[in-house]
Amino acid sequence: MKSYCPIADYGLIGNMHTTALVSSTGSMDYLPFTRFDSPTIFAALLDKDKGGYWQLKSTHPDTNCKQLYLPDTGVLLTRFFTPDGMAELTDFMPLKQEGNNTAVVRMLHVIKGKMTFRMEFRPRFNYARTPHEVQQEPGALLFRSQGPDCTQFRFMADLQVQVQKGDLVGEWQLLEGDKASFVIEAVPQAEGSFRGDNLRSYTNQAFTQTIKFWRDWADKSAYQGRWRETVMRSAITLKLLTSQHYGSTIAAATFGLPEYIGGGRNWDYRFTWVRDAAFSMYAFLRLGYTDEAQHFLQWIMQRSKDMKKASDLQLMYAVDGGAHLEEIILPHLEGYKGSKPVRIGNAASEQFQLDIYGELIDTIYLYNKDGGPITYSFWKDVTVFIDFVVDNWKTPDHGIWEVRHERQEFLYSKVMAWVAIDRGLRIAEHRSFPAPLEKWVNARNDIFKDVYENFWDEERQSFVQYRGAKVLDASTLIIPLVRMMSPSEPRWIATFKAIEKNLLTDSLVYRYSTEHGATDGLVGREGTFSICSFWYIENLAKMGRVQEARLQFEKMLGYANHLGLFSEEIGLQGELLGNFPQAFTHLALISAAVELNKKLNTKSTNNDTAAYS
């Protein structure tokens, strides 16, 4: 029986089509096969007994483990240390080319002494809902799920394994210098794919090619500032969450991981939120990666062609642009540490969230400015979105936090409506594109005045979550970051102080108080939201509190796991909570690092306050 590892104990590997999580002790406990949002074959992360896993471990009772990435790559190393020897497990997914199949490679090498390793390979198809059978092939074992939606893959190894009730087990004593290779590959195989008799050659070649791909990609980064290794780890994580085929970025690698242990906020994040993906492209552009932004815009262009009207834009899609994301509960899975229900799909896809137009058009603006000019044909689609915002900015929505009860006029949504129109005006001016400029300017002005006057609470001396509310919301931190108001605006400064007083714990920021205001409709506590923490830090930098921002940024980095990965939230005991790793957190880290590095490189910090003033 397996116990649950902390969420922070996992490392991410992937091939930009799907991802897997490997624990610090060498157990692959999560793998959707063969796309980000495919049913899993390993999901012990969500049910230790039923979910399925692939473990390679030292049998010595006194084994210490250490995990790291090869720098500037997505290749994960897990090291095993015992009194008798030292070994290294290398995990990666070869980058798929056209005609190749999804594969997972595990390479074991005894570096010193001698060690005994045990393997347990226990796949569970279709979220552990579908039985499977095993069939012997030349040089491989074929695993095939039963039923009409057949999934199959080959398992290959250069060590002997035994079949036990549909699973595989093996135990071997390996000496210094011994190496072993293990591979699973989706089938049917394309012509020219490897088989078991040339396994070692394949894994060595795949390793070399995968290392080269990642290091070549990292070398293209324009960022050479402070914390480069941390920034590039976040960039590689975003790249691993971005579809090579479609150009869309998923919100996180996982589904069902709880925002509070034992709670019910357990969502499926393996889809493309327009908001999250647009912010991800902003992060890529800040690092000089224009190809990723261009590919995403092509994906958005296709969504535009599929729509009859601007209101048809959904807040999230499947990676291929599919619009049907039915939310289903998997009652047979106990959930991470008993956190039920476990959900796949996401009912929030049917919500109306006004802010997505702002994030999208801001990304288009940045790409047009720094990546390459957009076409007039695409501009005509963009104007449809802007006109929709002009006509609907007063419409209540579900907001950035996806509340599941009544709609409200959320401040964040108003701010991003302002951004949509403002960036549209900037594109039109820069490119001299036709546009109803007077209408747009008037709407932009009306939104600004509405936010400034009607979302300000004189008693609290702050902007509030939605019209008529009395509660603070950390999403307000976006206002100076999108340049709607200056960091020196008195009402903004007062709001910032209120957030520091009521939502801040050291460098950690809560998104709002779950006891007040519009929540997601569920009871129970949650952790601090890491994206809000990095927004807070970026605001400190913009407000001239640069040394304080640096201190808080570097303290915040200490909440990452041993590999530099963040989930959505951080709990009261410093534990990572929510789906993991999360794009939103990593893109906000990149943005904060770039802004802070820029401020530190200037000489305009004479008025900076002391770190603990």
How is this structure best described in words?
With 613 residues, the protein is of the alpha+beta class. 33% of the residues lie in helices and 21% in strands. The chain contains 14 helices and 26 strands. It has helices at 125-128, 199-219, 228-240, 274-286, 290-306, 356-371, 376-392, 411-431, 437-454, 478-481, 490-502, 530-542, 546-557, 583-600; strands at residues 10-14, 19-23, 27-32, 40-42, 53-58, 64-69, 76-82, 85-92, 103-122, 132-137, 140-145, 152-157, 162-164, 167-175, 179-186, 272-273, 316-317, 328-329, 343-344, 456-457, 462-463, 504-505, 508-509, 528-529, 569-570, 576-577. Helix 5 (290-306) packs across helix 6 (356-371), helix 8 (411-431) packs antiparallel against helix 9 and helix 12 (530-542) runs antiparallel to helix 13. The termini are far apart. Mean pLDDT is 93; it is low at 609-613.
Protein traits:
613 residues; globular; 14 helices; 33% helix; 15-stranded antiparallel beta sheet; alpha+beta
Summarize the structure.
The chain has helices at 125-128, 199-219, 228-240, 274-286, 290-306, 356-371, 376-392, 411-431, 437-454, 478-481, 490-502, 530-542, 546-557, 583-600, and strands at 10-14, 19-23, 27-32, 40-42, 53-58, 64-69, 76-82, 85-92, 103-122, 132-137, 140-145, 152-157, 162-164, 167-175, 179-186, 272-273, 316-317, 328-329, 343-344, 456-457, 462-463, 504-505, 508-509, 528-529, 569-570, 576-577. It has 613 residues and is α+β, with helices and mostly antiparallel strands. The model is unreliable at 609-613 (pLDDT under 50).
